[in-house]
Amino acid sequence: MKNQFLFVIISVMSIAAFSQNPIKEINPDLKKYYDQYLVKGSFILFDQNKNKYIICNQQQVKEK
Predict the structure, then answer these.
(1) Using an 8 Å Cβ cutoff, are 27 and 54 in contact?
(2) Contact (CB, 8 A) for 57 and 31
(3) Per-residue pLDDT tens for 14-64?
(4) Could you tell me whether strands 23-26 and 43-47 are parallel, antiparallel, or unpaired per DSSP bridges?
(5) Is the C-alpha dihedral spanning 14, 20, 21, 26 positive or negative?
(6) Structure pTM?
(7) How many C-beta neighbours within 10 Å does residue 34 have?
(8) Alpha-carbon distances, residue 17 vs 12, 21, 22, 41, 51 (angstroms)
(9) Rounded distance, CA 54 to CA 34, Å?
(10) How many structural domains are present in the chain?
(11) SS3 annotation, 6-24
């Protein structure tokens, strides 16, 4: 009985943890590094600790 209760609690906590949508942060400050070398590009970084994406040049990311 205790094992079933523990299983239910862990299952509910796991579902709640994985159901959160990550935050998207658009960071245009990173564009200066592309401009410095006269190249076009985009950048996406996922920060697992903060559950967020850091995106540079979102327009190009959407095209791919």
Answers:
(1) yes
(2) yes
(3) 565 565 788 888 888 888 888 999 998 888 889 988 899 988 888 877 775
(4) unpaired
(5) negative
(6) 0.56
(7) 15
(8) 9, 10, 11, 33, 11
(9) 16
(10) 1
(11) HHHHHHHHHHHHHCCCCEE
